[in-house]
Amino acid sequence: MPVPFSIASDAINRPHLSDVSPWRIRFRTIYESLRTDITLLRYPPGAIMDISLLARQFGVSRTPIRTVIQRLENEGLTITKHGVGTIVTEIDFSQVRQAMELRMCLAEAMGSLDPRPPNDTIGEKLGSLLSEFTNLENEASLTDFARLDMVLHNCKCELIGNDLLRRSYDELYYRTARIWFQYLPKLTWKSEAESLRRDYQQTLEAVRRNDVTAVGFITRNAVSEALYRINNLID
């Protein structure tokens, strides 16, 4: 199993993670690593999540793995079947559509429910990653697209001060993120890469002027446009 990129480990240092006990950090590391692997289809739909194997992989007992698996199941990413074990769920577009529609509504609340003032780190990160889009637009890479999309998502979550809103929005994102691997190959690659680059650029400009409300509406519009394109493809 390949080692996930650093999104999961970066999340441990987020300021909204108040419980920094060793158990919580270990749980968060395992949870975000497995969630990333599922999102990137390293565990594709139908794959079995072997608890004993995962416990050995992360160097822990089976108990924390079961706790993580239960959370992933609550979020719709896995399901446990009697006699089979825990498997990764299939991608249900009707549920993805509902989750994306709810994401649009929640995104608009980013700037009104205890927004966090943008810090220099967010702007620097977004600015540095903009340079990667030249290669991305010319050379299709689903993994790089997903990585850039996840980093942008995490930066936006840093701006959400309301804990319940942030957790809900974060969960909905990961309920929908897998769909890109299913539909991106059927869409116009350069157009999709350009759409993500535009989201980066507009978000960066809003962050630089400390306008979290604008970030919310930029996000809402980006999700709406993505849903429109996928709907057209399915229709």
Short description:
The chain folds into two domains: 7-88, Orthogonal Bundle (Arc Repressor Mutant, subunit A); 93-234, Up-down Bundle (Four Helix Bundle (Hemerythrin (Met), subunit A)), CATH 1.20.120. Helices cover 65% and strands 3% of the residues. The chain has twelve helices and two strands, in the order ααααββαααααααα.
What brief labels describe this structure?
235 residues; mainly alpha; 65% helix; single chain; Arc Repressor Mutant, subunit A; two-stranded antiparallel sheet; 2 strands; disordered N terminus
Write structural notes for this entry.
This protein is mainly α and 235 residues long. The chain has 2 domains: 82 residues, Winged helix-like DNA-binding domain superfamily/Winged helix DNA-binding domain (Arc Repressor Mutant, subunit A); 142 residues, Four Helix Bundle (Hemerythrin (Met), subunit A) (Up-down Bundle). It is built from 12 helices and 2 strands; from the N terminus they run ααααββαααααααα. A two-stranded antiparallel sheet has the order 1-2. Strand 1 and strand 2 form a beta hairpin. The N terminus is likely disordered.
Q: What oligomeric state do the depicted chains represent?
A: single chain
Question: What is the residue-mean pLDDT, rounded to a whole number?
Answer: 87
Low-confidence stretches: 1-17
Counting DSSP H or I runs of 4 or more residues, the number of helices is 12
CATH fold node name of the largest domain: Four Helix Bundle (Hemerythrin (Met), subunit A)
CATH class of the largest domain: Mainly Alpha
CATH architecture tag of the largest domain: Up-down Bundle
Total number of distinct structural domains: 2
Which series of helices and strands comes N to C? HHHHEEHHHHHHHH
Proportion of residues in β-strands: under 5%
How far apart, in Å, are the first and last alpha carbons?
36 Å
Rg, Å, rounded:
18 Å
